[in-house]
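Margin note from the TA: students keep mixing up input and output lines. Inputs are the sequences; the output is the structure of the whole complex. Example:
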Amino acid sequence: MSAYYPQDIEKKWQTYWQEHQTFRTPDDQSLPKYYILDMFPYPSGSGLHVGHPEGYTATDILARYKRMNGFAVLHPIGWDAFGLPAEQYAVKTGTHPRETTQKNINRFREQLQMLGFSYDWSREVNTTDPDYYKWTQWIFLKLYEKGLAYEAEAPVNWCPELGTVLANEEVIDGKSEVGGFPVIRKPMRQWMLRITEYAEKLLEGLDDLDWPESTKEMQRHWIGKSIGAEIDFTIRDHEQGEKIRVFTTRPDTLYGATYIVLAPEHHLVTVITKNDYKERVENYIEQASKRSDLERQELSKTKTGEFTGAYAVHPITGEQIPIWIADYVLAHYGTGAIMAVPGQDERDWDFAQAFDLPIIRTVQPPDDFEGGAYTGDGPAINSGFLNGLMIEQSKSKMIQHLEKIGSGTKSINYKLRDWLFSRQRYWGEPFPIIHVDGKPRPLPVTELPVTLPDVEKFQPTKTGEPPLAQAMEWVHTTDPITGEKALRETNTMPQWAGSCWYYLRYISPDFDGGPVDPEKESYWMPVDLYVGGSEHSVLHLLYARFWHRVLYDCGIVSTKEPFQRLVHQGMILGEVEYTGFRQNGEWISSDQLGKSTESGNEASQEASQGTGSSIERVRLEESEIEKRGDAFVLKGTDIRIEAKAHKMSKSRGNVINPDDVVHEFGADSLRLYEMFMGPLEQVKPWNTKGVEGVYRFLNRVWRRYLGDDPDGKDQIQISNREATRAELKHLHQTVKKVSDDIEGMRFNTAISALMIFLNEANTWKDLPSSVAEPFLILLSPFAPHVAEEIWERLGHTGSISQQAWPVADESLLKEETILYPVQVNGKVRDQLSVDADKASEKVYVLEQAKQLPNIQKYLEGAELIKEIFVPRKIINLVIKPGKGL
RNA sequence: GCGAGAGUGGCGGAAUUGGUAGACGCGCUAGAUUUAGGAUCUAGUAUCUUAACCGAUGUGGGGGUUCGAGUCCCCCCUCUCGUACCA
């Protein structure tokens, strides 16, 4: 068999790599290290999708490249294997999640190996393995010890459908991130982690990280630091002397505070409300508590609220201002109370308008300002001692004054809230906690791991009792230290727990003296490159940073931050689809549709706005359409259609299965194609024709090396002759380009360079081995199987992956002649070829340029005003045209 | 609304510091080979004009800086992602 049959060679090399432990991490700390990490997958039942190989191929290329450049490379993989789907499957079928998980892991491992990734499989971790989660529990005990883990009875996000509580980060628009089920607020006993204590450290730590700016920005927003002041307002006729404390970022506007608003849940509401208003206020609180976050958001445009009948005293003017309650003030942010300054705040303005409350401007808006609240800068007005000052100055002067009279102080607030860390689920890490007389006690480290007991049923009870509560024998235990009767914690940890520190376990997966061997940790950390989806920008990446920073403070790790460089791979969309629209049998232009047709991508028929008649979506073939202007239209008409690539989804039926691609074209083609599609970070549509393109390229490589014998014999096309200078130049240009592009993770242009080389090499009568072999090495990180196979057939033993990466010879890269584009008035009119050693001689080159026939044409009868000469780049002659032109 | 990013051929994309816009791949056209198809090879392929060369136009739109702008500056439009009463 001489033709390229990926099916015949890929399995062979995968087995070879495994048997020879080709990619085992070297244990030699004298080598420079490179830790390259993939976000480990959740092994779902549906197997790998084409998104996985994208990031994984990128890191694999880099890992192989770094190894060939003499680095000790740590490139591991594992399984984020706790999670809801396996548990839900257990509820339905009674299959233990352990079994489902193991099955899925095996499938995933097989699929990853099928793609030829160079992981060190001896370091595989699995978050559901008791030997692993023993250390997850150990870290939890550290957090507990440091006072960073606590129990609280708190209103939580309870999702009845999922039967569990969710972290704030897992609730999106009032619905669960997983499944999109409604979430309500409900008070329950929960474990919390005091991530807020690390708000400042987590914020500062971002500055020195080589991460996408957008991701850092998202984390900064999530932490949400605001600098301002807390101001106390006394309450009129209130004997207990309690004060209302508000948080504001605009203390400069205090003179414009015309009323106070408390969150409905604020503890003073019931205390201060006057009898005449009690009924209405209680009613409002009741209403507000029933509303989900979703409803609150939907109703956010119209402000609601109630007057309490009470008044506060303005700390500076001494005036009395009314105290209201309204749900636009959030109980959990700041102090749960605000001073309303409608003149400078849009929300307060809307509220004041709705309830006819007074408005005082304290910042002079510009003359042409129209509208309500003015939030821009300007001189202070109506503000006593602040008048005339700009905002920044006013702020600090006001804070000074408040501090002097004892009515306020400078204050910093964060949006970040403590992390709700328990779930009412079975398939998660048990807490290493027991309760004696209702009080939590940590178990000693010697009791770890606390393993999951088997249970009969996996669903939580209606009241929210976790499934573990049914394991009576397990729940009832004794305190190993005192011997007292105790109850085990029946909540489990959220899925994020295991992924908070897995990158440490890879470093020393069998170490039993702690989560990580300190001696190895200080060598390998930090992770040099971390690649994964941007959907983890806030959740996983913030939680992991938090744990890591705590471990740093405990002296367990040596770096403040875990992931030095982060790259997100862009999503791969389905193939582009062309859709035409028909209404009552007539084609209509897509730009005449209401915006509403865009939503609900599953529906094939949707009601158009107003008319009630239905619009039919029709899938069109490429042959039925054409481009007109900047849009696609139905061929021969002006009827616009929609051309769009959509997210892959089962319901849309546009999912590409990597198994199928590998079956048809081989793993090397899948790898190559996913890297060739475009920049790694970018969102890109799939195109099966593109896979065929790179497959053809690999076929050409094969034929260039091994020939095309119809009888199936290798006809080696490699010669022993000496390579010409021109051939070496092509090779070394390619070496340089491919090396630079891999370092910069520009894999698409690296592959393009490989193709350019091959196109060139195909014009030669044969391939000298001094050129052929380095090129094969350049190809090997991208398409490892075919590179190994050809390498072997050329007579080599051992793996090509252990060859040294070629180094570009600068002396061969030098051009012998320089080709100058010659412009006249900025337009290229001719070209001039100059010997490299004369190329920088301005006078000589310009003289030559002016002699060019095409240039003469323009110079004739014209006045030469200026000569631009950029050595080795360009010549531009600026003229005032003569008559002839 | 706010924040971030992006608009380049029929399509994915290239152009690393302001210096020949469209590399590479797909698709398409013609030819060679083949009984035919597929595969392979050769040539062409931004648009307009032209037999061809030449020429003109051209990187979402409008202005500007410069000898020279896809790249820098200002204004506007569109799209994608994120976020949303955080005081």
